[in-house]
Amino acid sequence: MKISLIAAIFLIFLIYGCTNGNKNETNLELKTKAESQELNQVFQVKSQLQVGDAPYDFTVVTTEGKAVRLSDFLGRKPVIVYFMATWCPYCARDFAALSKVYKDYENKVAVISISLDLNEDLNLLREYKKKYPALEKVMFASGQTEILVNYRITRTTTKYAIDKNGKIIYIGSGAFNEEQWKVLLDEMLK
Question: Which end of the chain has fewer CB atoms < 10 Å from its terminal CB, N or C?
């Protein structure tokens, strides 16, 4: 009963989050300007996790059938944990922009893309990933209630950027353009 209630609440927040563009601009904390975007704006996510904190660990199974644990990357390379849904137009815009720049970072920064729609299975995500051949090394995975609760996910395009030492350096949401992706990825490599 509790899980059904939580799932229903998340679905309401997800639909609201993907359809309600935020008109307030904020600084990305990476010294890049937030730019007006046709469909969405970049804004800060309110979470118990803060910049400087260690992220919650989790294990997901990717569309390739591999079990991936977040903590396995820490100490080796930076990671972006990205929350999305296949039906979200902002995610499509984010992935299109990332596709144009990720080739230069794919061996340096890992990206774990987790669906926040608990009805999206690995087969659906596998088909969705085919739309973005330049993101071959991005790991797509089905969502899990525990992960969504721990990260307080209420909107698509939510990004947690974690440096290689295991500290969160950015928490935000909103579709990025190519330049914003470059700024975030470059900051993660410092």
Answer: N
